[in-house]
Q: What sequence folds into this?
């Protein structure tokens, strides 16, 4: 898997946008960037993924730089329930399909405060 | 409903005993994974399997064993050789392919060895 680097922690005020960065400078051309979040003592939950175009779904938006070396997960209106650990990963691809290990780093602890 | 199920949610064992954690999925996913999580830490990969009757060691496989006799099931045995088995264990599965290969996680098993 491509190595990803995230800040260990971030704060955000409730109602404001939370912008979580991720560096993945060694990512290969066909590797997707995935974001997950883990609320305390639960299994991680998938949020969004993308290859090179910006993506948006009901949970978040994903902005990927043109050189694909970094991305930003945006929670447009953070709520207290968005307090969680957010993981950015870039699983290895081989032969055009997902392959092998699925490695998670330490993630970013996002704290949303009133 | 499709999903991935881990059981039990809490497990207590005496030191020196082997214990098996269950993971079952009905998502028809080829790949399955086991992770260990310690307090305040990220997910560390123990074992993974991409196909029935095949599995590979992850980053911290020592003291653990797995089997993959059926596509739906990927049990993890924590052996007496694991020096510090008390932890939160997470199982995941995902499809192999080019897109939409997000991982689905179970709710975890919290193992306490006394």
A:
């Amino acid at each position: 898997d491509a190595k990803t680097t995230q800040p260990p922690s971030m704060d955000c005020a409730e109602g404001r946008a939370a912008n979580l960065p991720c560096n993945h400078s060694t990512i290969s051309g066909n590797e997707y960037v995935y974001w997950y979040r883990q609320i305390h003592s639960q299994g991680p939950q998938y949020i969004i993924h993308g290859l090179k175009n910006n993506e948006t779904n009901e949970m978040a938006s994903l902005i990927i730089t043109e050189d694909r070396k970094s991305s930003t997960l945006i929670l447009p209106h953070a709520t207290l329930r968005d307090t969680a650990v957010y993981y950015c990963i870039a699983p290895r691809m081989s032969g055009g399909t997902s392959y092998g290990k699925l490695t998670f780093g330490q993630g970013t602890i996002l704290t949303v405060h009133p | 409903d499709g999903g991935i199920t881990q059981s039990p949610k809490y497990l207590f064992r005496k030191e020196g005993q082997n214990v098996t954690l269950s993971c079952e999925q009905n998502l028809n996913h080829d790949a399955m994974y086991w992770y260990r999580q310690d307090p305040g830490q990220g997910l560390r990969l123990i074992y993974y399997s991409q196909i029935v009757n095949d599995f590979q060691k992850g980053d911290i496989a020592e003291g653990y064993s797995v089997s993959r006799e059926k596509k739906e099931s990927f049990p993890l045995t924590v052996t007496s050789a694991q020096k510090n088995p008390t932890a939160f264990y997470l199982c995941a599965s995902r499809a192999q392919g080019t897109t939409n290969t997000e991982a689905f996680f179970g709710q975890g098993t919290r193992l306490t060895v006394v």
Observations:
- The longest strand of chain A covers residues 18-23.
- The CA atoms of residues 32 and 51 of chain A lie 5 Å apart.
